[in-house]
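ZP: hey, is the zinc ion complex queued? I don't see it on the tracker
AM: it wasn't, my bad. submitting now with these inputs:
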Amino acid sequence: MSGTEPVPAGGTETSPAGGREPVPAAPTVGAEPVAAPVTVRALVARGVGAELRIERVRLPAPGPGEVRVTIRAAGVCHSDLSMVNGTIAARFPLVLGHEATGVVAEAGPGSRLRVGTEVVLNWAPACRACWWCRRGEPWLCADTTAPTVPRGETDDGVPLNLTLGLGALAEAVVVPETAVIPIPAGLPPEQAALLGCAVLTGVGAVRNTARVAPGETVAVVGLGGVGLAVLSAARRAGATTILAVDVAEAKRDLALAAGATDFLLSDDRLSKEVRARTEGRGVDHAFECVGRATTIRAAWRLTRRGGTVTVVGMGAKDDMVSLGALDIFHSARTLRSSVYGSSDPDREVPVLAAELAGGALDLGVLVSGTVPLDEAPVAFDRLARGEGARWVVTLD
Ligand SMILES: [Zn+2]
Ligand SMILES: [Zn+2]
């Protein structure tokens, strides 16, 4: 959905001409040979607006501290779409996907992970050494270079870029072991995949960023995968009035199933409708899950004096939000963002996975359907049309 992912460094240009590099020879440790590169099928974007295709790509063998993960399920997130349509800068050719679950198939030298471990991928592995990591804010980790380094290559020998360092809409990925989080075996893969982006982001926005308390009132603007995850987390946090807002009437049933107490269409009566349900004040917390200036302003207007607006959606860098200086002072509202749910994925994904295993967390409503890898482009079309919640590619 409207992800909260950082913009990868670099421009929108495709890989530079002459950027071909030979496939490195299979690494060896002493005299002991380790595994060779593997060829897998992956969903590849060749440029902004280009038709998405399943291509054969070559992944390197996992090096020291790396693992190869066989993907079982991967969600189609709005941030992938934003790279394909040019809203977020990306380098091409690009393997899409960053929200996935799978099984460790091969561990590089020195890896602590065992083959066969079920995992969720983490698109923001923390370095644990920078200023932000040391002060307990790993979601703001300063070590953001790794996701932008090309890895592997296409069948015609062009270096591959991987969405957020993962490229998870593929039969397998090779990633640092810091980018995988073990989960209990046996979770439904199409639901477990969502823990790595939409659910961690949505639940974290409610629990960690806004810290919604029992009895509070909430509005959620934008009902993609993350918005729906915010709704259900707000319900579980004990919010009593949970207003779901979207431009599409078709989201009504989904919103109510996810935990909303009311569904409101985003039109010129919205502020009035919200105030009618909050004793004239506006909500304690508004969550913006689209990533646009107009919806951030809408969320701002729905919030009571002294309330909090949490921006979860990632927008374009030239989409400017305008607020009145007097309004900022007089409303006493707080405007903040929630990057990756202000969460530590290594700590919080296992908690969410345990909740999913125990039935406290039900992600069924978030999964609109599953498609095989060959039909992943169809899932992107559905996402672009705003159909359903989350479409998940399954590879079992
Ligand atoms: Zn995402
Ligand atoms: Zn760090």
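AM: back. The longest strand covers residues 66-75.
ZP: great, adding it to the tracker
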